[in-house]
Amino acid sequence: MAARLTLVCCAATQATRKGMFALDEPLEAGAAELAKALGNMLRRPDRAWTSPALRATQTIAALGVEGEPVDALRDQDFGRWAGKRLVEVQQSEPEGLAAWLADPHAAPHGGESIAGVAARIAPVMDELVAMRGHTVAVTHPAVIRAAVVNVLGASPQAFWRIDVEPLGVTEFTSDGKRWALRFG
Q1: Is the distance from CB of 3 to CB of 176 less than 8 angstroms?
Q2: pLDDT tens column, 29-51
Q3: 3 state SS of 170
Q4: 63, 98, 153, 158: which sits with the fewest CB atoms below 10 Å from its CB?
Q5: How far apart are CA 105 and CA 116, in angstroms?
Q6: What is the rounded CA–CA span in Å between residue 136 and residue 70?
Q7: This model's pTM is above 0.90
Q8: Among residues 135, 125, 134, 132, which one has the least CA distance to residue 176?
Q9: How many Cβ atoms are within 10 Å of 82's Cβ, its own excluded?
Q10: What gap in Å lies between CA 63 and CA 114, rounded to an integer?
Q11: Residue ranges per domain, the chain?
């Protein structure tokens, strides 16, 4: 095995709990303690990367790992929907929300499309596939979904069939040429 990649989803925030499109908010009370417990179970990495978002940098710190910020691991840009509850957007822009959920290239919110997130994470996965050692990266649900879809060669519509919980761990292994999704 040439490489191992562990993607950790950021710990929960108030926006997570309220069903909101994320802003750059801090972790909710108690989330850092949960991340610390997870950090005690994670295999020590050879390198650690993090999204530059506050919730990601707080999560990686709570894991007990010093991570290098990597811009490609940032959350999806939700444009004018950032900070709004999903139900608010459903009421105010039902056609836009429906388009976003149906078409991976749609960005009716003025931010980044699902296809844009996938295009951003693909080079990161390509860079890491041949690296030896273990990489831990703290990032966001959209980035993790895009990585899974990429590795499986699945249709972009599969993005919405992947549920990523706060502090969820997704593992990949590489033979130096391709990634495989790993279940432990």
Answers
A1: yes
A2: 999 999 999 999 998 999 999 99
A3: strand
A4: 153
A5: 7
A6: 12
A7: yes
A8: 132
A9: 18
A10: 28
A11: 3-182
